[in-house]
Amino acid sequence: MRWKQFFTPAKSISAEEAKMFMAEKSQDEFNLIDVRQTKEYEASHIPGSKLIPIADLDKRLDEIDPSKPTLVYCAVGGRSRVAAQMLSGKGFDNVINVKGGIKAWDGHFAVGTEELGLEQLTGKESIEETLVAAYSLEAGLRDFYLSMNEKVRQDEIKRLFQKLAQIETLHQDRIFDEYLQVSGSQVSREEFENDLVINAVEGGLTTDEYIQMFKPNWDSAVDIISLAMSIEAQALDLYTRASERSKDPRNAAALKKIAEEERVHLEQLGKLMDERI
């Protein structure tokens, strides 16, 4: 039996090439599909990826936009290669298998279920409610960085936490400005924060859970930046999942925009990491 005849060929690229491909595009310009099993996805996945186990793929084709390039990955590349061939055979024109799978992925990871952190972003919110939730998540992370600043002794690490908090403040500024624009409200920043915002850490995990998961060395700049990158990757994953769930096009667009900004945050943190390695 020549099994090759049953499959439509699909392109394969390395994990590093996949990272470069994704870096050159916004989060909304491609599909990223994880074809592993649910427990594998929960243990770790590439931020922003959508879980469709390979056994369910043919039944869930309507969840994938065929007009966009589609990257497919699994654990080591075997299942994703077959999945890419299946999609190509179903009429998807630009399907790319990520060789080596997540094992070869030398980048940021997110963890948890597809529902993690979506309590505040169910997809039923108005655009105003979505921006309030996003602002509260950013406020939670800013407060987290400031609280961590009090735990460390080295001046360099203190300055690093202050810089990370400043990045979150700038993101809050942009979200607040967009809230004023879409709502037509004249509410002051103080009223907005006191009446509408609920503090929470981004990504659906508590501060203590993040610390326990990553166990950083508080005297190591590299460890601190790594922790921050992990949290930002989780936030990118959360906003991407929330945008896919949203039933309001304006909502989805706002969430995609915030997700893209989280990716910029990751790039900024990557530059900080490069300066210290």
From TrEMBL:
GO terms for MF: metal ion binding; oxidoreductase activity; transferase activity
Lineage, broadest ranks: Bacteria, Pseudomonadati, Thermodesulfobacteriota, Desulfobacteria, Desulfobacterales
Matching Pfam families: Rhodanese, Rubrerythrin
Domain Rhodanese positions: 26-114
Alphabetic keyword roster: Transferase
Protein name: Sulfurtransferase
Record-linked SUPFAM superfamilies: Ferritin-like, Rhodanese/Cell cycle control phosphatase
InterPro entries recorded: Ferritin-like (IPR012347), Ferritin-like_SF (IPR009078), GlpE_sulfurtransferase (IPR050229), Rhodanese-like_dom (IPR001763), Rhodanese-like_dom_sf (IPR036873), Rr_diiron-bd_dom (IPR003251)
